[in-house]
Amino acid sequence: MGSFVSLRSATREDATELALLTDIASHGFASWLWLAELGNGGADTPMERGRQKLRADQWQGSWSDAVIAAAYGEVAGAAIGYGLGEGIRNIEADRPALKPVIDLQKMVVGSWFIETLGVYRHLRGIGIGRRLLEDQIERAENAPVSLITAGYNEAALSLYRKSGFSEAARADAVAFFENGRKHEWVLLTRDAR
Question: Which residue ranges does the record assign to the N-acetyltransferase domain (predicted)?
């Protein structure tokens, strides 16, 4: 399964698709973060701000760390991953909702961190996410692999566990909307090959 999926390195021109898929993968968390950055000027909407960030060259997690999956003649999904360096230890959350996520990341310094793995809903369940995950594991080479997902995301948890990941830690998520779903962030890790 998944042989109909082609993967390619993302280009700067993929930033719009990457912003959409990052927001889908984060269940709206990304666009909420981008909304808070609108006061800095240069963007009119959270998605436009996300696109700007993903087009940038100056930080990890932008287009240069991304892989695009294509299927049936369209972009189907994307993954963004990179080596998580010591610099994460110096980052302090500027919003309460970010603190548990950053705290979990600080636990896996030195791992290949999958920041985003998202597939458009109409193309889920046919092996695209698995193919993107396999590619990220390959990119990690000899490093352990880590990622964070929402505790209620059973489909993602199942995929990750079937791919050799195990739960390393949990942290209570801080709701970013007043009526937001209460959940935990789950840190999953996979030993080096």
Answer: 5-193
